[in-house]
Amino acid sequence: MTGKKTSAKPLSRAPLDKESVIRAAVKLADEGGLEALSMRKLGHALGVEGMALYHHFAKKEALIDGMIDSVHGEISVPTIADDWRVAMRERAMSALNALARHPWAAPIMESRQNPGPASMQLIEATIKRLLNAGFNIQMVAHIISVLDAYTIGFGQQLRSPTESIEHEVQMGKDIMAKFPFDLYPHVGRLVSEVVSKAGYRSVKEFEFGLDLILDAIARLAPAK
Amino acid sequence: MTGKKTSAKPLSRAPLDKESVIRAAVKLADEGGLEALSMRKLGHALGVEGMALYHHFAKKEALIDGMIDSVHGEISVPTIADDWRVAMRERAMSALNALARHPWAAPIMESRQNPGPASMQLIEATIKRLLNAGFNIQMVAHIISVLDAYTIGFGQQLRSPTESIEHEVQMGKDIMAKFPFDLYPHVGRLVSEVVSKAGYRSVKEFEFGLDLILDAIARLAPAK
DNA sequence: TTTTTTACTTTACACTGTAAACTTTACACC
DNA sequence: GGTGTAAAGTTTACAGTGTAAAGTAAAAAA
Questions:
Q1: pLDDT tier for residue A180 given thresholds of 50, 70 and 90
Q2: 77-116 in A: which are within 8 Å (CB) of B?
Q3: Among all residues of chain B, which has the CA nearest to that of A182?
Q4: Is A101 helix (H, G, I), strand (E, B) or coil?
Q5: Do B157 and A110 touch (CB under 8 A)?
Q6: Reduced to 3 states, what is the DSSP secondary structure of residue B161?
Q7: Using CB atoms, which residue from B109, B137, B187 is nearest to A127?
Q8: Is the predicted pLDDT of residue A3 greater than 50, yes or no?
Q9: Are A133 and A84 in contact (CB under 8 A)?
Q10: What percent of chain A has pLDDT over 90?
Q11: Helices marked H in A38-104 — which ranges?
Q12: What percent of chain B has pLDDT over 70?
């Protein structure tokens, strides 16, 4: 009986628009993961029934495409003003930060096939910057492929920026509890001497690989 | 003692075991993606009601953990007999092949937190091989981190081994149809001159980045 | 005013994971 | 043999999912 609408709503709410729906959806997913994002819950968060959202997005998939584009929008776009290496490093670091802020995104990023304007602008500017550095078009494809695969792959093993340390430590302990040390001595060593050591940071780990790759690319770069 | 009873009473159907359930689940997911894998459909494929599976797996998650471990079991385990670089290359290539055979796997691989025996054996042997090559334990962590992040990230943009070429070509066309050439000229160039060119192969693309990374690692290796 | 459009709600349906209780089967032991 | 027990599989049930279809109410256009 709580469902009874006793008084008409005083038309208080402005009509929804795509942007704000996407914002709310991202927030929901940030808080509880993608599986916590249902049309009904999202509607509720916006003061509306779930079905109302279908007037703005044809399917849930379309909404998720919008969410992904919104994450792409948080990634630093390379400019000609910056040195190519600086620009690529900045792009990768800001991408990792975005993936850390939105842990649901990495697993679905590269499998989407409806890129939005932010994604297009980002890739366009990236290609442009690398071509301008003197790389040929095949090499540009190679470079973007390595950098993005590495970044997304790494982003996938992140949970959230702050909790990742304790999380990984805890996970290491859980694993070693179930699979005893003497069966997997080297895994034990790695967990106890590296991952669970104070000061271990995923971001540092990411930077190591990133600089390794950037160094290798720089070696292929045409003379300035 | 306890002599094995071999009474020959014919069963209507041999009882399920974890292995065969996992095999069937992997097959279902290979064919229709993870979202095509429901407990009821899986049960049906095995000649059983969906709920029967809960006598073998506590939750669907546990089944998926088993599936992931099964994919890990398809990856080539490094041995001391092989040169470390050869072993790591082989490991990465076979991992990519496994991810291509099971396109549902990459997005969920690194987020699982219940590694099975195959995963443990693989990581144990990998660490062992790298330590034996003279890398210190921190460096081993770095190396595995780069290689696995790259491999999983790349695996994520694969669909399936055979269709990936046409798929990417088609996707390139779709994108360029929606976002006109003149808005994104460099993306247009990349699609037309690289991705949609005859002979473009995802595997070659993967190998480029893999060798780039392996070269860079080799430069950090202690003298033999 | 009347008509049309837009935003949203209601109802409905086919699926999902899985808890609880029940039935059937298989084998150990008297 | 019969009997007990445990494992394997079924049935029923429930809350939650995406979304099709049709209804409603308010704003905009005519």
A1: confident
A2: 107-111, 113-115
A3: B124
A4: helix
A5: yes
A6: coil
A7: B187
A8: no
A9: yes
A10: 73
A11: 39-45, 60-72, 84-101
A12: 90
User: If you count them, how many residues does chain B have?
Assistant: 224
Tokens of A173: 């302990």
Place of tokens 């950098």: A147
Q: With an 8 Å Cβ cutoff, is A203 touching chain B?
A: no
Of the segments A15-19, A136-140, B198-202, which one has the largest average pLDDT value?
A136-140
**Rounded CA gap, B85 and B95, in Å?**
15
Residue A157, amino acid = Q
Burial class (CB in 10 A: 0-12, 13-18, 19+), A154: buried
- HEC string of A111-128 equals CCCCCCHHHHHHHHHHHH
Q: How far is A8 from chain B (nearest CA, A)?
A: 41
Residues of chain A positioned with their CB less than 8 A from the CB of B107: 107-108, 111, 156
How far apart, in whole angstroms, are the C-alpha atoms of residue B190 and residue A136? 10
Segment A188-198 mean pLDDT? 88
* Residues 56-115 of chain B sitting with CB below 7 angstroms of strand C: 58-61
- Give the span between the Cα atoms of A98 and A74, in whole angstroms: 6
Mean pLDDT for all residues in chain B? 89
- CA distance readout (Å), B164 to A209, B101, B196: 27, 11, 11
Mean pLDDT for the stretch of residues B52-56: 96
Over range A83-93, report the average pLDDT: 98
Alpha-carbon Rg for chain A, nearest whole angstrom, is 22
What number of CA atoms fall less than 13 Å from residue A13's CA on the CB side?
13
